[in-house]
Amino acid sequence: MKIRRMKRLFQWLRASMLVCATVWLVSCSNDDYAVIEPGAAYRAVLRGLDWGQNTTFVYGHKTPDVDAVCSSLGYAKLMRALGYNCKAKVSGPINRETQYIAQRFGFDVPELKTAVPTGTRLILTDHTDYAQCVDGAREATILQKIDHHVDGDIKDIILQEMGNLDGILIATTNLAQNMDKAFERRFLYKIKFEKPTVEARMSMWHEMIPYLKEEDTRILAIKHEFSGGQIENIARHYTIGNILHGKSENVIEELSAYCDNERLETKGIRKIGF
């Protein structure tokens, strides 16, 4: 158990360090990216930003995890070391992993501040799109975006439209095990419907292909944990095959071939999200 916990801890720390090490400095007054090398040029760009008189807040994304919290803390500390009045904040409660790491290594997590007033100066870390920003970010002045994602790509466009939607978005998938965690956290509520039992699958096989023997339906139901929609797809393929080529002498062998084609796992892992 201790080894497993330490392994997970190193994974979290590695993810945090990767985020903090990959720095993209983007001036929000320019549509082009400005990838700034450390040194004089970097300091010159910082001096050219409108810092104002008040504290600039450094935020990671909503539902803050290890990389969001540590990157905001690290970058705020860097800005203070360079002479700028910056302070890290979080827009929501941190998760247990981040709490554990903070306690284990003895550092304070950022203060919770769920919204910012108009005109507040912000620096964003580990995110770029407004869907993940602290409330009020649209009316704030964003000085920098420190992120390893690509600003303005199709992911950001989709997520921004999701954030702008004045209504309820309902999405479905039968590949929840492949869902990207960054995409998954955009959904406030998640309902999991378990796959049909063996008996239910047997009944569906018989309903879709009535002349299947009970023994054949049991073989198919046990071997392939399909949903009703997948079984229906296979039955359609089988029916089309019979029309085009005549009825097969080995029904189970033909259906098994269609079952293998229906399974996405045989074609490589397909990620859901970004």
Tally of helical runs: 10
Number of self-contained structural domains? 2
Q: Uncertain runs with pLDDT below 50, 5 residues or more?
A: 15-36
Content of β-strand: 5-15%
Text of the CATH class of the largest domain = Alpha Beta
Order of strands across the widest beta sheet? 3-2-1-4-5
The value of Rg in angstroms is: 26 Å
- Please write the string of helix (H) and strand (E) elements: HHEHEHEEEHHHHHH
Q: Give the overall average pLDDT.
A: 80
Largest sheet: 5 strands, parallel
Structural class: alpha/beta
Quick gist of this model?
The chain has 274 residues and is an alpha/beta fold. Helix content is 44%, strand content 8%.
Give an account of the 3D structure.
This protein has 10 helices and 5 strands; from the N terminus they run ααβαβαβββαααααα. The protein has 274 residues and is of the alpha/beta class. It folds into 2 domains: 2-164, inorganic pyrophosphatase (n-terminal core) (Alpha-Beta Complex), CATH 3.90.1640; 170-274, no CATH class. It has a 5-stranded parallel beta sheet with strand order 3-2-1-4-5. Helix 1 (2-21) crosses helix 3 (66-81) and helix 7 (198-208) crosses helix 8. It is elongated. 24% of the residues are buried. Mean pLDDT is 80; it is low at 15-36.
